[in-house]
Amino acid sequence: MKYCSNRTRWLKTLREVVLIICIFNLFLGISLHAEKRITREPRPKWIERISTGIYVGVSHRFPDEADARADALADAKRQIIETLGGVIESEFIDEIVESSGEINTNDAFTRSRVKVVSRNIISVKPSKVFVEKWKIRKGFKSTTEYQVFVAVPFSEKNHRKFMKELVDETIGLGEDRYNESLKLAQQGRILLALDQMQTIQANIAPLLKVTGLLPRDVALLNRFNEKVAAKIETIPGSIRMEGQGGNQSAKIGLPVAEPLEIAVFWIDGDQKYPIPDLSVNFSVAKGKATLSIQNKTDRNGKAACVVKNIASAGRIEIQADILFPENLKIAESQYSFTLLPDNKIMVKIIETNLDKPVDISYLENALLERLTAGGFQVIENSPFRQLTENQIQAEQPDTIFEMVKNSGADLVILGAISSGQTSKIRDEFYFARARGTLKVYNIQSKSILGSYMLEKKNAGNSNENAGSEAIKKVSDKLINQILTEMGLE
User: For residue 390, what are the contacts with CB-CB under 8 A and spacing of at least 6?
Assistant: First the structure.
């Protein structure tokens, strides 16, 4: 029991010693690290009650009074600049204050604003100065530091003068940039011109948000901003396309005489300004043709397409798609050229029904009707009138070309169709089989465009009627096939 009592007294004494040491260190720390204002004069009222048109700058504490004075003045200047509401970008404010307005930037509008700020704000001076002394104890050493308060006047009159200069400078620079943009547009550099104009707008917008602008300044800025906005809106709507070479004659198997040409330009008043370096895609929208393409507009704003070969007999449409940059938002970016078919044709079909020649060939009449509807001119004076079916089948192409070389024909279609192989199923129900052949000759290119053969059967109420129906069935299918391949379907 005695041992426990002594141990308890020892622990109590130890706790008291530790507590005393902690309290001693606390008071020692306070005394070794202390700040004390040693200026007896109280702070003047202008520091707390700031008058209109006065900016109070407060410095940090410095060992050198001159440094504290400079810091207080810089603080006042910074406040003046910040009250302008974003006219000067925040990242430039410290540079302006510290370097007397000399900053490194490629933006002409920023340089202009900095120049005006420098002229009006950098040169301000304090009307009142108050200096405080502070004793700073660090450990066993003490130093004297200074904190300075300055009152810098920048009245409403100064502010208006400054804003007038800023507005005039911005509009003057904006006018120069606007005129440069128009020159770029006249050179066909439309996107760059619009980008320049949007930069002008972006630099006018912050000024319109500044408080204290005179009505005259607001009116000037709005008028100029509206002029720029109107031009930004009208430029895309004033871009035009013109095509040359449409409505030319097109003969199957031959090139088109003149190239198809698309011109793209910007209209300003009564002047046209070509737009170069636009991508243009030419394509065949209807019919068949082989194209040779110039894919970009040249310095005259023109791109061309040569139609090297017409491969179908009907109406040909060539489409030019101008690939404007998306920023331009051009509503109409396509132009269509139409080539008119100019094909003269001869047709000779020998038709027999059950080995008997027919007076009026169904196949020839139906084919001529469809060809005429497709724009063909039919030459009636045919040298093939006396040919037999065997001769039509046996004649060599060179002989055909020689027979019609002076006729003016572009195409010749020769063929034969006949029915036979009839069979009676029951009374008034018969079947017959028909076989038809057609050859299409291109006289201009001296080539065979196609050779077609088809055989089908059909029913009728007599042998002759079944033969006629079979001929019609084969004829209709042959006509559809040949017109499809000629581009007329």
Answer: none
Nearest to 468 by CA among 348, 351, 347, 349: 351
Could you tell me which residues are beta bridge partners of residue 378? 345
- 184 and 227, same structural domain? yes
Instruction: Specify the residue for token string 């391949």.
Output: 485
The per-residue pLDDT for range 261-303, each reduced to its tens digit, is 999 999 998 999 999 999 999 999 998 999 999 999 999 999 9
Instruction: Check pLDDT > 90 for residue 154.
Output: no
Distance from C-alpha of 234 to C-alpha of 171, rounded to nearest angstrom: 21
Per DSSP bridges, beta strands 334-341 and 249-250 are parallel
Within this chain, do residues 250 and 383 fall inside the same structural domain, yes or no? Answer: no
Report the chain's terminal Cα–Cα distance, integer Å.
123
Domain end marker among 291, 307, 341:
341
User: Residue 207 in contact with residue 87, Cβ under 8 Å?
Assistant: yes
Q: Which domain holds residue 170?
A: 157-237
The residue written with tokens 């770029």 in the block is 184
C-beta of residue 341 within 8 angstroms of C-beta of residue 316: yes
Q: Which of 90-94, 248-252, 469-473, 481-485 is most confident?
A: 469-473
The listed range with the strongest mean pLDDT (23-27, 38-42, 394-398) is 38-42
Which helix (H) or strand (E) segment is 417 a member of? strand 411-426
Q: How far apart are alpha carbons 455 and 475 in whole angstroms?
A: 10
Residue 32 to residues 23, 28, 125, 137, 140: CA-CA distances in angstroms?
14, 6, 39, 6, 6
User: Would residue 58 count as lying in a domain?
Assistant: yes
- Res 32 pLDDT > 70: no
Q: CA-to-CA distance for 489 and 482, rounded, in angstroms?
A: 9
In a shared domain, residues 352 and 479: yes
261 C-beta neighbours (distance < 10 Å), count: 18
Number of neighbours of residue 42 by Cβ within 10 angstroms: 7
Q: Give the per-residue SS3 of 10-54.
A: HHHHHHHHHHHHHHHHHHHHHHHEEEEECCCCCCCHHHHCCCCCE
The answer to whether residue 19 is domain-embedded is no
Other C-beta atoms closer than 10 Å to the C-beta of 114 total 22
CA distance 78 to 74: 6
0.90 cut: is pTM over it? no
Cβ atoms within 10 Å of 217's Cβ, excluding its own: 21
Is residue 334 domain-shared with residue 414, that is, in the same domain?
A: no
Contact 325, 235 (CB under 8 A): no
DSSP 122: I
Let me know: does 420 contact 444? Beta carbons within 8 Å.
no
Percent of the chain as helix, strand, coil, to the nearest 5: 40, 30, 25
